[in-house]
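Listing 4. Sequential folding, example run.
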Amino acid sequence: MKNLLYIFSLIFLPGILFSQVSFDLEKSKIKWTGKKITNASHWGSLYFSEANLFFDGSELIKGKFIVDMNSMTVDDIQGRGKERLENHLRNDDFFGVSNFKEAILEFDSKSKLSNGEYSVNANLTVKGITEPVVFKLKPKGESFIANLIFDRTKFNVTYRSGNFFENLGDRLILDEVELAVTLVK
């Protein structure tokens, strides 16, 4: 009987105590921005294959997001240049999408700030490498927004990085990648 109660509590209690918020995967997206030393930049979109937040009452307790790296687009240019850059970003010089189809962000620690934002400590996995990141997550109506900056070189994305190559001049690409995330219910 004790075993039956234990199994029952494992299956049903988390659903009673915690609520899960899933997001519309077609409407939710990430705008990425990469910059060169010259202040020139490229930007585009990434889409989620999974996006969930978990709450204990009104307190955010954890989140899990999986990004489909094949969904990566370049949105600031068109035509052949767009196609070339998308393919280049997907190849092994950058994100190696044929071998690393997903990027994952998971967290289970948070602290609510007085202005309604959450300061989140998370683990970001790109190209099979996991590194800690910190960002702010803000409710906006029925949605959430977040801005996150990560150092691509920590994930073995070193193409034209000044930390790995010399004499790049104006061809140097900055190491920081900016992500503007919109999560829509």
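-- end of first protein; second protein begins --
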Amino acid sequence: MIVILLGPPASGKGTQAVALCTRYGIPQISTGDMLRQAQAAGTALGKDAARYMSAGQLVPDSVVIGLVGERITADDCKNGFLLDGFPRTQAQAEALDKLLSEKQCPLDAVLQLDVPRELLVERAVLRRTDKATGKIYHLKYNPPPEGAVLEHRSDDQEDKVNKRLDDFERVTTTLIPYYQARGLLRRVDGVGSLSEVQARLFAALPG
């Protein structure tokens, strides 16, 4: 099973990625983790990526695609893999298509979690972290115990949440029609309990 999982901030994508990977016995490949692992391993591509990152620059698509190509040849990818956070542009999607074709690894589906924007903002802005335990609560859906000392993370402030959502919408403006035209896009309702959304994702996948 080779899947791309798309979802805006606060859509529950991280939790659902774990469920999908567990069900199909495949690794979750995120570009952030992959870049850090390549740096730590000291590969040629990892050194290239480190050079750009240390200069505060975006890592070029050619380097990222090269790292993806290296990563998907690892033993844990023999049954497939889930790509999280990549591709982010149509150019990256086209480069990924070429790579997967060369390696004879056809893409099975692109899953897009759909959640209304107002709900995404509510989910993020009302999150709080218990300073003592690190546990995350939600003021509406999962209230903290009385007396908990709570922290409101800076990236959960409403202006920053809206900026992240704007950034995501810019990404999907090109990716969604690109994969829709190829018959690979599966839009999944992301509103509901974790188990309900999980069941919809499983049902959207072939086989």
